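User: Let's play a game. I give you a shape written as C-alpha cells, and you guess the letters that built it. Ready? Here's round one.
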C-alpha cells in the first residue's frame, strides 16, 4: 500500500512540476512584446550567426554576420531574405517562422502539449501543424525561448539557438520594413 501511495505522490508531484513549467512559459510569453537576441543557425551543417529582433505578432529583422551581408525581414505578411546578390520573397504563412513569430499560436499549442525536459536545463515542446513539425526550446530557469528546430521550405534541417536575450525594448519605427529589390 505504501508503494502505491509513493507512486501516486511522485506522479502528482511530477505533474504539478510540469504544469508549473508550462504556466511560467505561457505567462512569460504573454508579457513579452519583443525580443532582441544573438543567434547561431545550423542549416544542414552550414553555420551562420548574427542578431535578430522579433516583435509579436509575426515580425522579425535579422542581420547576419558582416561577412555575408545578409538580412532576413518579415513585416507580418512577407518574409524577405536579401544578400548583395540575391533577393527572395516568400509568404510568411508558408514558412515555419510563421509559427515562431506568433506568440498566441505558441501559447495555444503549448497549453495542449506535454513538455520534455532536456538535461534539466531546457523545456522542449513539439508542435505539429499541417505538414510542419517544429520543436521549440525554453530555458528551464528563465522560461525564455532559446531555440527551435524544423525543416524549411527546401527540406533543409534547421537548428537555431538564441542567446543574450533582451525583452520589451524600444524599437526603431521602420525596423520591419521590407527592403527593396536591388
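Assistant: Ready! My guess for every position:
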Amino acid at each position: 500500500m505504501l508503494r502505491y501511495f509513493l507512486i501516486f505522490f511522485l506522479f502528482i508531484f511530477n505533474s504539478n512540476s510540469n504544469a508549473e513549467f508550462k504556466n511560467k512559459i505561457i505567462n512569460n510569453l504573454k508579457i513579452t512584446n519583443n525580443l532582441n537576441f544573438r543567434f547561431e543557425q545550423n542549416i544542414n551543417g552550414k553555420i551562420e550567426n548574427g542578431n535578430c529582433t522579433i516583435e509579436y505578432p509575426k515580425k522579425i529583422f535579422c542581420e547576419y554576420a558582416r561577412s555575408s551581408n545578409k538580412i532576413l525581414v518579415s513585416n507580418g505578411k512577407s518574409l524577405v531574405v536579401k544578400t548583395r546578390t540575391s533577393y527572395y520573397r516568400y509568404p510568411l504563412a508558408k514558412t515555419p517562422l510563421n509559427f515562431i513569430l506568433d506568440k498566441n499560436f505558441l501559447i495555444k499549442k503549448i497549453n495542449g502539449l506535454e513538455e520534455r525536459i532536456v538535461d534539466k536545463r531546457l523545456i522542449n515542446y513539439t508542435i505539429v501543424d499541417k505538414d510542419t513539425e517544429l520543436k521549440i526550446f525554453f530555458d528551464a530557469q528563465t522560461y525564455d525561448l532559446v531555440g527551435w528546430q524544423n525543416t524549411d521550405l527546401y527540406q533543409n534541417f534547421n537548428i537555431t539557438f538564441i542567446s543574450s536575450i533582451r525583452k520589451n525594448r524600444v524599437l526603431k519605427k521602420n525596423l520591419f520594413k521590407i527592403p527593396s529589390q536591388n
